Amino acid sequence: MRRVVQVIRVLPEKADAYRELHRNVPLPVLDRLRDCHIANYSIHLLGDRLFAYFEYHGDDLAADLAAMADDPATREWWQRTAPCQRPVEEAAPGTWWADMEQVFLME
Amino acid sequence: MRRVVQVIRVLPEKADAYRELHRNVPLPVLDRLRDCHIANYSIHLLGDRLFAYFEYHGDDLAADLAAMADDPATREWWQRTAPCQRPVEEAAPGTWWADMEQVFLME
């Protein structure tokens, strides 16, 4: 299992909309996440930062992320969430959610 | 089980020292964490932000956090890590690591 932790900004005026959207994530989006070997997925907010934590149980994360991006329900979902978000300034060019570096683990 | 997610700043000039400290956390510190019903604890870094995620399996988090603060090995450890850190600006007065709000969970 591999932990994936990512960060992104939320536009302050869109934080409430982002919360509201996530109270009722479409089931096909959740199904696709599970099909892509993702579990124990949570998103956390403070100020203008969103942190996402999930556990990846597959053996090809890039392929599974591509499969998510290829899913119509997921793409529609991202069209609703993306207007709330902006990459953090540390994000590599072209990335949306920015990967963080794991510096400590106690299992 | 309750997920606890917190954020703090790392001083840029201390990020390497923070990484290095966490490559070799003293065993009594890890033992105390486990005794305090904490598991699956990881810390992640990007830019000047540290993001901590852990899972709490006890039934009195405040008491367990107090027990950690009462442990000599943990206090000594915090004396080494605290100079690397500063609270984020959104932190409530007097808090160190700032609690984040969970806005999404898929178990």
User: What's the β-strand tally of chain A?
Assistant: 6
Number of individual domains of chain A? 1
- Biggest sheet layout of chain A: 5 strands, antiparallel
Radius of gyration of chain A: 14 Å
Q: Using the alpha-carbon principal axes, give the shape of chain A.
A: globular
Determine the oligomeric state from the structure: homodimer
Kindly state the percentage of residues in helix of chain A.
25-40%
Give the helix tally of chain A: 4
H-E string of chain A: EHHEEHHEEE
Q: How much strand content do the residues of chain A show?
A: 25-35%
Unreliable spans of chain A are: none
CATH topology of chain A: Alpha-Beta Plaits
Main CATH class of chain A: Alpha Beta
Termini separation of chain A comes to: 11 Å
**Which structural category do the helix and sheet elements of chain A fall into?**
alpha+beta
Pair of chains with the largest interface and how many residues each contributes: A-B, 37 and 37 residues
Q: Let me know the average pLDDT of chain A.
A: 97
What's the CATH H-level superfamily name of chain A? Dimeric alpha+beta barrel
What is the correct CATH architecture of chain A? 2-Layer Sandwich
